[in-house]
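Newbie here. two chains, one complex. Structure please?
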Amino acid sequence: MQVKAPMVGKLVSIDVNVGDKVNENDTLATLEAMKMIIKIFAPSDGEIKEILSSPGAVVDPDTPIVTLV
Amino acid sequence: MWEQFLENFMNIGLFHIEIGQVIMWMISFILFYLAIKKGVEPLLLIPIGFGVFAANFPLAGLMEEGGLFYIFFHYGIETELIPPLIFLGLGAMTDFGPVIANPKTFFLGAAAQIGVYMAFFSALLLGFSVPEAASIGIIGGADGPTSIFLSSNLAPHLLGAVSVAAYSYMALVPIIIPPIAKALTTKKERQIIMKQMRPVSKTEKIIYPISASIVIILLVPQSAPLIAMFMLGNLFMECGVVDRLTDVSRNALMNIVTIFLGIGVGATMSAENFLRAQTIYVFILGVVAFAFATAGGVVFAKVMNLFAKEKVNPLIGAAGVSAVPMAARVVHVMGTEANPQNYLLMHAMGPNVAGVIGTAVAAGAFISAIM
């Protein structure tokens, strides 16, 4: 499953690495929108398969950030 | 000769200082402290604070007719020049996208204006005159320039108290909103996830400020100064061909007029004007107004949910209390607390922006009803 950006913003960091095992609601990435830091949380348990974006990128809604399996 | 010396000596301000003026200095020091140490709206509280401080010197006459601060106040504020200029800059920073994508949210911004009217009626009950009560009520709109615009028009003697109350409560939004919004919603309601908004086209965004001006100014002509400038700023930004004007509106021009606005507002706070019981009432009624504005938005969102097929998260109603974008951020944080998968920020911007427009309209309505 691809985890996507929930809104327009600048990606500050990706807080996981490929191969990490995450639980639901763990932080996957940090986004800055409207001068506010917004954490993107894992929608379910799983393992990070790929990272699809990089810090500094400006993301639109629905830009995939990581793939979670 | 001795007499002349004595006379000059007695003209030293030191001998004319009054206790009230010293108290006003203390108040200005509190404003400095809040701005510098606590980060409370520093861009406004520093010039306002210094306006208070400098206007309360004996014999200096800064606020007497022809005095420097009087000139700032008279030409900048009393003539209602500066608040619309600030609105130009705000318009050039406002994205109407969330309102266009979900026009329902406009009603939430309107519902939050109930705070304005609750405070208005409470002020009437406390014995304030109608123009004074309107100036106090508008604090509930949580919009600084609009509050200044209205009270300089209707009750200039309350201007200082009203604007300081408005700006300090705006800074307190993260403390005022959550307990009220939480008390009025269940955990389940706060967990409601809102579907992502549809993308809004550039054409829609260009047409919006024009069509909104037509509707709003035709309905409430007295809101024209604020609305027209706001929409012009917005058109600057959205049309994409006048980047220089957009930039100067939201940066240089806004910063320049903020200096004169702050000094002018602060300077109205003379000891005899400010150190009165009614100032305390203004602050109390201001918080009442904020509380009802929050409640109005949240309750209206719940009512909307009774009929709507697609439920809204009632928390976004609380963002109708303008205070852009602070209220929307606070709403976002509450939503995330209830459900980490919840991203309410952009949804909350709808009522948030609508709240600004709603407050300007409410101010226009007061002016046309009272003047």
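Moderator note: The interface with chain A takes residues 196-197, 199, 325, 328-329, 332, 336, 340-341, 343, 345-346, 349 of chain B (CB under 8 Å). Chain B has 20 helices and no strands. Thread marked as resolved.
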